[in-house]
């Protein structure tokens, strides 16, 4: 095989597919529209204070007792893990005008999620270290995929400076949210109608979500017997968790209860102000002076979500592999957490989908 397998998307599924192909001696290239690797895995530092650690604005946990592929990859990459901190009482916020209630939690430590030291980005960084550096091309947007008479695939890409390039491929792994495939990439010949309908109906996991992380010099709430866990019917954050690193700084992160449309109407500054006010009400005056509040609204990230993803999440049943691709069969393969029915919405689903796509390619003897 002279032409490479082209992988569209440098998130966990795309990078995992590249790793699996490379181990088999199969030539591949990874094309990523963003200026960074990781996709929906994003671990950020406080500007000019990297010593405080990195904090996850995307996926945060995994469960090694259930998610074997994730556990195996973490072990293979020799990454350090620690169990999510949940010791102490939780807070329940029921009313805007009343203080929160403290409640004891009953849980089994074995049911807790596991986090990575340095954030989930540590896994992405370590995975990339196993790949030849030249195969990943950032700021490279796939515009069109054409099946030519010779059976080869011609891919039209655009760089951020406007440069257009045509790349020949033996096959393509589409490792990005299915709705982005439907919305942003032109196919010639067109994909079958039932396939297009299927990928247009797959909601993008996290596509309507946003996360905020308040970073402090230490996890002061633990000193008063609080776990950091909050359930709120008031908001703007409806679920809050301890996001502190294993040592040093403290952090609280939360998922929003207000819709993506309302968040975007408010603007980031107003949203962060509301978050700050809620944390002070919940945790007292020591919550007034965070080192920073990190914020990521995935619904406004054009490399993650489309307009339809702003609607309330539904149609879980659409997750899984798309139907047969007609004349594109054996030429394009779908990966990404939405295309795995077993563990969709999890990092495990991203890994399983990559394994499935590569398995199909190996069965076709692409060498």
Written account of the structure:
The protein is of the alpha/beta class. The protein is 23% helix and 27% strand. The protein is built from eight helices and 20 strands. It has helices at residues 12-23, 68-76, 121-129, 178-184, 193-200, 260-266, 268-283, 347-363, and strands at residues 5-8, 28-31, 43-46, 49-56, 81-83, 89-93, 101-103, 114-116, 136-137, 140-147, 153-159, 164-169, 171-174, 186-188, 210-216, 226-232, 237-242, 250-256, 292-297, 332-334. The chain has a seven-stranded mixed beta sheet with strand order 7-6-16-17-18-15-19, with helices on one face. A hairpin with a 7-residue loop joins strand 17 (237-242) and strand 18. Helix 1 packs parallel to helix 8. The protein is elongated and about 70 Å long. The chain starts with a strand and ends with a helix. The mean pLDDT is 94.
């Amino acid at each position: 095989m002279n032409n490479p397998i082209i992988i569209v998307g440098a998130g966990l599924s795309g990078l995992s597919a590249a790793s699996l192909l490379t181990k088999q001696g199969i030539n591949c290239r990874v094309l990523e529209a963003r200026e960074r690797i990781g996709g929906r895995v994003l671990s950020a530092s406080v500007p000019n204070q990297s010593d405080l650690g990195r904090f996850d604005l995307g996926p945060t946990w995994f469960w090694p007792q259930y998610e074997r592929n994730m556990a195996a990859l973490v072990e293979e990459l020799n990454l350090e893990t620690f169990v999510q901190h949940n010791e102490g009482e939780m807070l329940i916020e029921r009313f805007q005008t009343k203080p929160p209630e403290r409640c004891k939690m009953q849980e089994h430590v074995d049911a807790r999620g596991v986090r990575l030291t340095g954030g989930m980005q540590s896994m992405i960084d370590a995975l990339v270290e196993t790949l030849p550096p030249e195969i990943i091309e950032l700021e490279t947007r796939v515009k069109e995929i054409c099946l030519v008479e010779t059976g080869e695939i011609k891919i039209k890409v655009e760089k951020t400076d406007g440069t257009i390039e045509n790349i020949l491929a033996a096959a393509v792994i589409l490792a990005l949210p299915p709705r982005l495939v439907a919305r942003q990439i032109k196919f010639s010949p067109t994909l079958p109608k039932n396939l297009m309908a299927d990928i247009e109906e797959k909601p993008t996991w996290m596509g309507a979500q946003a996360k905020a992380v308040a970073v402090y010099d230490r996890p002061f709430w633990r000193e008063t017997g609080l776990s950091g866990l909050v359930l709120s019917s008031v908001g703007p954050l409806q679920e809050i968790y301890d996001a502190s690193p294993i040592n040093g700084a403290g952090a609280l992160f939360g998922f929003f209860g207000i819709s993506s449309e309302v968040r975007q109407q408010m603007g980031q500054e107003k949203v962060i102000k509301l978050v700050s006010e809620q944390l002070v009400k919940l945790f007292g005056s020591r919550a007034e002076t965070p080192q920073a509040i990190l914020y990521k609204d995935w619904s406004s990230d054009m490399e993650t979500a489309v307009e339809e993803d702003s609607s309330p999440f539904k149609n879980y049943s659409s997750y899984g592999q798309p139907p047969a691709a007609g004349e594109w069969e054996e030429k394009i393969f779908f990966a990404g957490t939405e295309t795995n029915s077993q563990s969709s919405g999890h990092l495990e689903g991203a890994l399983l989908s990559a394994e499935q796509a590569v398995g199909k390619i190996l069965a076709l003897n692409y060498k």
